[in-house]
């Protein structure tokens, strides 16, 4: 009986803490610093947005500085337009399945084949529009709205610029192979998510 009393007293002491729990937010991060910082934190903590953007930046960087520049400006511009429109109109956009961009872009990085100049621009435009619309829809429902989308796009621009610049600068010898291995990991992550969605 003495063994039972001690755990019961501990549970009774923790009961007020459990009853005073704060509400949880399922998707968007509330930093308390305002909607722009909420958007930045959302992008940094959402792998289904972050990883495809970084994979596209690596793919563009491996194609050279000109391709990287185009992608670095087209992707955030398309993302901002779609997110702003979806947020302003309160669209309910389900978005892409998370596995699709990871699998496709990871495979393209892994294969490392030459692509026509317009192809990367078209991929950046499509990815920006689709993921931006999903982000804008989520932002409209959660509250940050267009200002949250501006935070997302700012973080997207900085992250994709840094990764594309690294891929442009570091691609001699084994470094190019390292980028391709990273692409294979992204493709494998996409396959894992596909399998999980089919489960």
Short description:
The protein is mostly helical. It has helices at residues 2-19, 35-44, 47-62, 65-89, 99-111, 117-142, 145-169, 174-198. The protein has one domain.
Strand content: under 5%
Radius of gyration: 21 Å
How far apart the termini lie comes to 46 Å
> What structural category arises from helix and sheet content?
mainly alpha
Q: Taking all residues together, what is the mean pLDDT?
A: 82
Estimate the global geometry from the Cα principal axes: globular
Given as residue ranges, the uncertain stretches (5+ residues, pLDDT < 50) are none
Count up the helices: 8
For the largest beta-sheet, the strand count, sense and barrel status come to: none
Walk me through the structure.
- Helix content is 79%, strand content 0%.
- With 199 residues, the chain is mostly helical.
- It has one domain.
- Helix 4 runs antiparallel to helix 7 and helix 6 runs antiparallel to helix 7.
- The chain is globular and about 70 Å long.
- The model has no long low-confidence stretch (mean pLDDT 82).
Please give a handful of descriptors for the protein shown.
mainly alpha, 199 residues
How is the topology of this model organized?
Blueprint: H1 2-19, H2 35-44, H3 47-62, H4 65-89, H5 99-111, H6 117-142, H7 145-169, H8 174-198
Helix pairs in contact: 2-7, 3-4, 3-5, 3-6, 3-7, 3-8, 4-6, 4-7, 5-8, 6-7
